[in-house]
Every structure is written in C-alpha cells, then in structure tokens.
Amino acid sequence: MKTPDKTSPKTSTNTFAKTTGLSDNSISSTSFDWTDEAYEKFGKESQILSHNYHQSPLFSDTALINLLDNYPRKWLQCYTMGIDPLKHKEWTPVHIDKLTGEEIITAVKKGRMWINVIRINEYQQDYVDLIDSMYVKINNNCNNITNAKGSFSALLISSPGIQVYYHLDADPNMLWHLKGSKKVWVYPNKDERFASQQYIEEIIGQERHENVPYELWFDEHAQAVELQAGQVLSWPQHSPHRIENVDLNVSLATSYQSRESTRLNSVHAANHYFLKPMGISNRSTETQGIIPAVKEISYRGMNKLKLLKAQSRSASYVSNIVADPNSESGMSKKDDETRTAFSYVD
Ligand SMILES: [Fe+2]
Question: What are the per-10-residue average pLDDT scores of the chain (346 residues)?
Fold first, then answer.
C-alpha cells in the first residue's frame, strides 16, 4: 500500500462519524457476503457480485458534497471527453479546483465530466478502513490470492452518458458501484488481439498510459454488463475494459496488489527492462518456477536501487475548460490555457 502523503489531511478514526453524528455501526455494517464459489473464481474470471456499500453514510449525497468541499484540489481530477469510443485523444482535463462540492455535483449533472477523487485510500480514515477491510476479507477467503492489500483507490463521480475509453490497468482492480447505472465491457485478458504483450509491458514499464488501441469489433468478444448500485464488477488482471454511463454515476474503484499480481507485473517489467533490450522477442509471461522468481528478484532489486529509467509518459494537464454549474453544458471556456490544479500532484 502506498505510504500516505505527509501533507495528507488524513483524519483520526471515526472523524466522519463524529462530524455527521452517525454511529460507527452504521458505517461498519456495510460490506459484502459472497459464496465460496465466488471467492474461488475471484480474479480468475470477470464476475458481478453484490455489496451494500451504496447504503453506507460515507457515500450519501451529503457526505459526497462534504468530501468534495474539503478534498485537496491536487487530488481532484476532472476530465471531459467526446462520444466516439475510438477517439481516446479527446480525453481532456477540466479545471474544477475553485468549485464547492455542491457546485461540482451540479456541473457534473449537466456536463460530460469524469471526476477522479484520487487517493481516497489515503485521505480520511473511515474510507481507509472501509477499503482495507475489503481486502482483508478477500485475502482471507480467496485461496488463490496471497497478501492482498489495497494499492490505489479513487471515488469516481461522473456525468450521464459519458465514457471511459478502452484501457487496461497494471494492478488488478474492481469497480464497486454506488449510484446510477453504467455499461461496462470487459475484454479477454492474455489475448494478443485485445492488448499485446508489448503494450502491457510498456504500461507496467511506465512507457505508455493505460489506453491501448481499440476497434469496434472487440465488443463482440466482450462481457458486456449494465452495472447497478449494490453490484461490484471484478475481472482478471490486465483485462481491457471500457465504460459508458447511463445516468449520473458514483463508483469506488479499488486496486490491490498480492503476491501473485506482483509476480505477474514483475515478470512483465523484467521482460520490458531486461529481455526486450537484448532483442529477445519471445518473452515468457510464466509466473511459476525459478526463472520467473529470478525475474522478479532482479526487477524489484533494480527498481529499489532506482537503476531503472522509466520513460516519461507525456501527459497534458493544460486546459481552458472549466467546470461551471451556471452553464447549461456544465462547462465553460476561459480565455487562456493553464495547468489544472491536479497537474501538481506529487
Ligand atoms: Fe480501469
């Protein structure tokens, strides 16, 4: 798990309960209860399961507005995008730092915006505890997962009808849906047709962002679901996925690292940093045995010693678009292009 930023306004346990007058029980009673079969399949195939976090006071309308009011602006990302799923370069940053929580929600309802409330797993102890407890439970019940710990989590608040382009994430992740409904397409992992090994290596080697090339026919091979509040979608590590919202959505995206997921990423990283430069084109992704173990030790050792040079992934955070609750489209344009507050994230 990432080390909390020293400047993080992380509050003491149950601060939220104290400030809202809610009991600890009403927060901690939300969870999930899966069958042995569901735990057995977890991470091996994509699954929709149930939870009741959407009933937690931590995600009520009032709680979300309070959270947004106080959230560090460097950790509050906002983007807009077009309507064509093939044009991922239309993903554009939006200034949002000057708005109150209520203004943000009003603008999101009107506009085409995707808000990433990043590092929620480091921000306030109630959210930290909730996410930690998810992975304690998953770790205790999944025989194929060892030492699972949350690695990166974000609360996602997004407009009706928006999309998230086709991409894959390095760490295994899951989407706990809390409000509204969204269509999600999950595509086969370990299949060169949908994401080549080279792209996965480059994502893990931080040479490219998570977007990978997409074609419309991929959808014929996807598992397409319409996710409702109270459902959680999980999929095997490195499965590409994309999203289209139906209405206003709130979800919690959580990622985790386990011994198994770290081994797989380390093997890809070793392939990327060591084998590819040697001109070896047939790079095994096997994770069991001595050679994968050596790959992991070599990669992690070199990485720890900061001997690996990650390519700089070019990202533009400059924008002249501003979230605007008073505009019919929820957004307006300002004269000059400036860096968004979230471009200064450390
Ligand atoms: Fe994702």
Answer: 37 42 58 95 96 95 95 96 95 96 97 95 89 94 93 95 96 96 96 95 89 96 97 97 97 96 92 89 91 90 79 72 97 94 78
Output the CA 241–ligand 1 centroid distance in Å: 7
Asked, for residue 6, whether it belongs to a domain, the answer is no
Ligand 1 is an ion; its neighbours by CB within 5 Å are 169
Distance 135 CA to ligand 1 centre (A): 18
As for how many domains the chain has, the answer is 2
Q: Do 181 and 94 share a structural domain?
A: yes
**From the CA of 254, how far away is ligand 1's center (Å)?**
10
Using the mean position of ligand 1's atoms as its centre, give its distance from the Cα of residue 264 in Å. 18
Distance 167 CA to ligand 1 centre (A): 6
> Of 294, 237, 288, whose CA–CA distance to 270 is shortest?
294
Judge if 63 and 88 occupy the same domain.
yes
Q: Which two tokens stand for residue 103?
A: 């203004």
Predicted TM-score (pTM) of the model is 0.88
